[in-house]
């Protein structure tokens, strides 16, 4: 495994780190009050960050997958909200069209997604189909040159803000996973109804909504792949998406470790900085060790992907471990800060609130264990 980043990858890290500190950090307060970061996303589009791994031919930056992961890592250290928006937009909002779309579909949608003019969303989960994604009930019936889709979706990241929705629906329930199709749905499609905006524990600047499809009319040319390809498309893109979420979690954990270490060196109790009290010093040592291990798993899976090798098991391992690390390290960071850590005056309570959902979305930790054990 090559653990050295290339000069190009290091440039990406520096550029995104500077952008996150100068442009994203000042916007955190507004996002915490629920404001969606439209303006930041526009600037990210100008910098080429909305289509990092997309070929130049389709308007992207045509950089390697590791560079994309570096960008999510640096953004998530400052804002996990923007980390998930970028990961969902790219991994599961744009890449399904790039990998499974016709040339016409790619030409029509990918350049707009890669430039940030369009935002992408991924609609798999339903009220009664979460971990058991194949049990989804949304139904697509072909009528002439359209599919008529009825059903509902739940917990859709970027929902209500997105311009393009990758929607999964069954054309033939009897066929199980082989009866699921994927569609490219534009935001103004008749019958696409944006529902409840979830009030979440964290990630306050990201939008998470319910959707309903009421005789939603999708042109046949917006079918992605064949009618039986949908589940495979969902799984293949989730596999890569999980590296993105693992990276978001890594960014949160790094931020929590950094805040706790800085504070522990400054805070004096019993005549010396608490970092030199063994109870706190050992805590920081454990936190740093977990963060380092998470980083190795994340960049190992990204490197496999960059080299075009299989990375399904490694992606799930990275997600399982990095998301647990984010929850544990952010919890311990609050402990290091003591009472101050429980207040909104310090960022560690936000890291803690943002961390939890990483163990849930894009496949819960239990689902990652199913995937890993299947490989074993
Ligand atoms: N790539 C390509 N194909 C794949 C695949 C992959 N990574 N994984 C599975 N498949 C294929 C299988 O090969 C199989 O095809 P064949 O029948 O031809 O062999 C087919 O898909 C069905 O596979 P399984 O039998 O393994 O399917 P299953 O019903 O047992 O489900 C599961 C497997 C792993 C549990 C799956 O349901 C799953 O991942 N569940 C979690 C759902 C999830 O992650 N949801 C996240 C929602 S999106 C989100 O959260 C985004 C956000 O907002 C942040």
Explained architecture:
The relative contact order is 0.11. The model has no long low-confidence stretch (mean pLDDT 97). It is globular and about 80 Å long. It has a four-stranded mixed β-sheet with strand order 1-4-5-8. A four-stranded antiparallel β-sheet has the order 2-3-7-6, with helices on one face. Strand 2 and strand 3 form a beta hairpin. Helix 5 packs antiparallel against helix 7. The chain is of the alpha+beta class and 376 residues long. The structure holds acetoacetyl-coenzyme A. The site of acetoacetyl-coenzyme A has 23 residues, from helix 5, helix 7 and helix 11. Acetoacetyl-coenzyme A (CAA) binds next to helix 5, helix 7 and helix 11.
Summarize the structure.
The protein has 376 residues and is an alpha+beta fold.
Features:
376 residues; four-stranded mixed β-sheet; four-stranded antiparallel β-sheet; globular; binds acetoacetyl-coenzyme A; oxidoreductase activity; EC 1.3.99.-; Acyl-CoA dehydrogenase; Acyl-CoA_Oxase/DH_mid-dom_sf; flavoprotein
Which consecutive residue ranges, at least 5 long each, have pLDDT under 50? none
* Secondary-structure element order, N to C: HHHHHHEEEEEEEEHEEHHHH
Q: What overall geometry do the principal axes of the alpha carbons give?
A: globular
**Radius of gyration over all CA atoms, rounded:** 21 Å
Question: What about the largest sheet?
Answer: 4 strands, mixed
Reading side by side through the largest sheet, how are the strands ordered? Answer: 1-4-5-8
The class by helix and strand makeup works out as alpha+beta
Q: With helices defined by DSSP (H or I, 4 residues minimum), what is the helix count?
A: 11
Helix content: 40-55%
Oligomeric organization of the protein chains: single chain
Counted beta strands: 10
Please report the distance between the alpha carbons of the first and last residues: 21 Å
Approximate strand percentage? 15-25%
Small ligands present = acetoacetyl-coenzyme A
Query: What is the typical, i.e. mean, pLDDT?
Result: 97
């Amino acid at each position: 495994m090559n653990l050295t980043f290339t000069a190009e990858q290091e440039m990406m890290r520096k550029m995104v780190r500077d952008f996150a500190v100068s442009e994203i950090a000042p916007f955190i307060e507004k996002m915490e009050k629920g404001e969606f970061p439209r303006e930041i996303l526009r600037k990210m589009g100008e910098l080429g960050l909305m289509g990092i791994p997309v070929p130049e031919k389709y308007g992207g930056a045509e950089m390697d997958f590791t560079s994309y992961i570096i960008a999510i890592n640096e953004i998530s250290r400052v804002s996990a909200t923007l980390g998930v928006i970028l990961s969902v937009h790219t991994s599961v909002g744009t890449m399904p069209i790039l990998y499974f779309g016709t040339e016409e579909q790619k030409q029509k949608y990918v350049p707009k997604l890669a430039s940030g003019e369009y935002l992408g969303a991924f609609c798999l989960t339903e009220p009664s189909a979460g971990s058991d994604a194949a049990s989804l009930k949304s139904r697509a019936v072909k009528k002439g040159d359209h599919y008529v889709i009825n059903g509902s979706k739940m917990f859709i990241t970027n929902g209500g803000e997105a311009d393009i929705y990758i929607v999964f629906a069954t054309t033939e329930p009897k066929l199980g996973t082989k009866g699921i199709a994927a569609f490219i749905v534009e935001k103004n499609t008749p019958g696409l109804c944006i529902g409840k905006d979830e009030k979440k524990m964290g990630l306050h600047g990201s939008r998470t909504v319910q959707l309903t499809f009421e005789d939603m009319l999708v042109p046949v040319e917006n079918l992605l792949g064949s009618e039986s390809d949908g589940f495979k498309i969902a799984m293949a893109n989730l596999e890569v998406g999980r590296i993105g979420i693992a990276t978001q979690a890594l960014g949160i954990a790094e931020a929590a470790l950094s805040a706790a270490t800085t504070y522990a060196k400054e805070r004096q109790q019993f005549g010396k900085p608490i970092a030199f009290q063994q109870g706190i010093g050992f805590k920081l040592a454990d936190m740093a060790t977990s963060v380092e291990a998470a980083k190795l798993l994340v960049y190992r899976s990204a490197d496999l992907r960059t080299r075009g090798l299989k990375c399904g098991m490694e992606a799930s391992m990275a997600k399982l471990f990095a998301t647990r690390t984010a929850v544990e390290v952010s919890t311990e960071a609050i402990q290091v800060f003591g009472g101050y850590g429980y207040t909104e005056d310090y960022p560690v309570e936000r890291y803690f609130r943002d961390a939890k959902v990483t163990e849930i979305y894009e496949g819960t930790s239990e689902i990652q264990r199913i995937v890993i054990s299947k490989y074993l």
